[in-house]
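Researcher: We're teaching a course module on how sequence relates to structure. For the next exercise, students receive a sequence and then see the predicted structure as tokens, so they can try to spot secondary structure elements on their own. Here is the exercise chain.
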Amino acid sequence: MTTNPKKERAKLTPEQIYEIYLECNAPGAPVKAIMERAGLKPWDLVAIRRKVKAAAMEALANPGKPGRKQQTVSVEQYQKISKELSETKDALATVGYELSLLKKRTN
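Model: And here is the predicted structure for the students to work with:
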């Protein structure tokens, strides 16, 4: 019987990968030793750095509100909602006017 010479990689959480990334970026850090300890290869660090840069660029390009994704709305949807808002404002103004007339009659 032959055994598979490849080691099975340990599954690392995103937090662990980020900690490895930070540790490797420290000045004078022994990158090779850090990567070996984590069971990673040097090209894994290149991929991690690429992903961190892409995520940072995405976050900086689209700051938005935390926890809330920006979404685009079609022109038709915008016009429909704008019309509904206008109608609602008009109805509210009418109700307010009628209420003021009723208050005048009761006084």
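Model: If you want an answer key for the exercise: The first helix runs from residue 14 to 25. Residues 1-5 have pLDDT under 50 and may be disordered.
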